Amino acid sequence: MSIFSWFYKKKNHSPTVNISKETQRLTEQNIDLTSADIDPQGAALLNNYLKAVELKKQQKLSEAEALLLLSTKPPSIYKGHYRELFKIWRQYNREGLKTKNYQAIINRVVEMYKLDNEMVKEMLSYWSIQQKRKLPLNYFDKSRNLLISDAKALKVSAERLQQEKYIVLADELIGNIKKNKFN
C-alpha cells in the first residue's frame, strides 16, 4: 500500500498537497511515483538549484545567478536557493567595494532585503497552512539569509554616496540582525 493510499483511506483526512486526479489514479494502481510526479514545479526548482551550485563551483557566477533568480520569482520557501544567490551577490559586493561601485552594491543589498522578506512571508504562509495555525511574524527571523556583512556593505556604500535613506535602512538591518542573532 502506498503512503498516498493510506492517507486517502484515513477518515476525515485531506492531503495538504493538491494531488492531481492522474496522480491519485497511479497511486491507487500501486505505481511508484517520484517527487517530480507529485510536484513537477518543485522538482524543476531543485534541478535548477543543483545546476546553479555546479555552475558556481565552476566560477560561472552569472549563469548560476540567473538560475537561482528563477527560484525567487514567484517567491518560494526554498531557503537554500536564496542563500546561494546571496553568496554570489556577496562576492559581487566585495568586488564592488574594491572598485568603488557603490550604487550597484546599494541596489543589490536592497534587492536582497526585498527577496529575504518575500521568502519569509512565503514561508509563514506555507507553514501556517501546513500547521493549521497562524504563526507569529517573527517565527522565521532566524532563518533569514541577510547577513550583517550585507547591511555593513550597504551602510558603507550609502555613506560614500550620501544616501540617507539607505544609511537608515542599513542601521535598522544591523540592529535587527544583531537582535535575531542573540535571541
Explain what the structure shows.
This protein has 183 residues and is an all-alpha fold. It has 2 domains: 38 residues, no CATH class; 134 residues, no CATH class. Helix content is 71%, strand content 0%. It contains 9 helices and no strands. About 4% of the residues have low confidence.
Question: How is this fold's topology laid out?
Answer:
Layout lengths: L2 H7 L11 H8 L6 H4 L1 H18 L3 H10 L8 H21 L2 H30 L16 H13 L3 H19 L1
Helix pairs in contact: 4-5, 5-6, 6-7, 6-8, 7-8, 8-9
List keywords for this structure.
2 domains, 183 residues, single chain, 9 helices, flat, mainly alpha
Radius of gyration: 21 Å
**Percent of residues in helices:** over 70%
Order of helices and strands: HHHHHHHHH
Tell me the number of structural domains: 2
Structural class: mainly alpha
Q: What is the averaged pLDDT score?
A: 85
- Shape by Cα distribution: flat
Give start-end ranges of low-pLDDT stretches.
Answer: 9-16
Distance between the termini: 45 Å
Quaternary organisation of the protein chains: single chain
Question: How much strand?
Answer: under 5%
Helical run tally: 9
In short, what is this structure?
The protein is mainly alpha-helical and 183 residues long. It has helices at 3-9, 21-28, 35-38, 40-57, 61-70, 79-99, 102-131, 148-160, 164-182.
